[in-house]
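HUMAN: Spend a minute on the protein record below and explain its fold to me.
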Amino acid sequence: MNPQVDVFFSKAEKWPVELEKLRMICLDCGLTEELKWDQACYTYHNRNIVILGELKDHCVLSFFKGALLYDAEGLLTRPGENTQSGRWIKFNNIQQIIDLEPILKAYIYEAIEVEKAGMKVKLKTTADFPVPEEFKNKLDAVPALKTAFYALTPGRQRAYLLHFAAPKQSKTREARVEKYMLQILNGKGLLD
């Protein structure tokens, strides 16, 4: 146990018992406990394996390279539709964790083996994301915008592409492009 991580557990409001049980499972698997992103993170030879999280309706055991796990029990889900690598398992009571403990340990050991083998998730590149027509038209019409957009980091580019493509209506996509043009021109990401 890492005393620095105790802060995370002391702040747990809705799922303290569940998170403490997940902590014990991770430690039983020989992982090193660290505090990263204000969360309890578990590593193997300085490589992230799993992280715990507390949300309103559940707590989670999240696998950094969950997409590479076999998932024989069908427990792993994507945190979001655009998540490429991570997968998590949600819990909303202690009994679920107790019942799944041997399976959770097997998944953690598999995640350790994935890391030992040096396996990597093949991530989509920015070029794999479609450019919404409304944004493409604006890039063609404003060369400075095109230059500024492609000067952004790939992650910032993807964030904009996903944000601009999300609405169903063209006028909403156009409004989003207009809203963020200045921010792109200033070299800033969607959330900067």
About this structure: The first strand starts at residue 32 and ends at 36. The radius of gyration is 20 Å. Strands lie at 32-36, 39-44, 47-54, 59-63, 87-91. The chain has seven helices and five strands.
